[in-house]
Design brief:
The chain has 126 residues and is mainly α. The chain folds into 2 domains: 7-51; 54-118. Strand 1, helix 2 (36-43) and strand 2 form a beta-alpha-beta unit. The protein has 7 helices and 2 strands. The two termini are 30 Å apart.
Length: 126
């Protein structure tokens, strides 16, 4: 991404899309570009903004020992690949039970960011 591709740049792009006939978007998955979620909603007020899950997963794995990463990753996937919010919450509770003694900051981070993690769970898996 070029240095000029900030929220103002994307405001122009989104406005152009709207002017060319795009009436609305259901969901937008965004990275950490500051101001981008607000920019999307300013042009498409009904859009749900979903932060990209990849940085959260990477951050969760940052402090995990190499030997445990594969197993822990399987348990994390059970959360964000759940077919519903209810099942995702249960998977997070199971994750906490299993891993909080070693890595309490992981489930705490997921709980603190839960409202930004779950929007896509409102849609069917396919």
């Amino acid at each position: 991404m070029e240095k000029t591709e900030g929220a103002k740049f994307w405001l122009q792009i989104l406005t152009d899309l709207r002017n060319r006939g795009v009436e609305d978007i259901l969901i937008a998955c965004v990275d950490g570009l500051k101001g981008f979620p607000e920019t999307i909603v300013s042009v498409f007020p009904k859009a749900q903004v979903q932060p990209c899950i990849v940085p959260m997963v990477r951050n969760s794995l940052k402090w995990v020992s190499y030997k445990q990463k594969k197993e822990l990753m399987i348990d994390l996937k059970a959360i964000y690949k759940s077919p519903s919010e209810e099942i995702a919450k249960k998977s997070l509770d199971d994750f906490s039970t299993k891993w909080d003694s070693q890595y309490p900051m992981i489930s705490k981070s997921w709980r603190n960011n839960w409202e930004s993690v779950i929007p896509f769970l409102a849609y069917p898996p396919n």
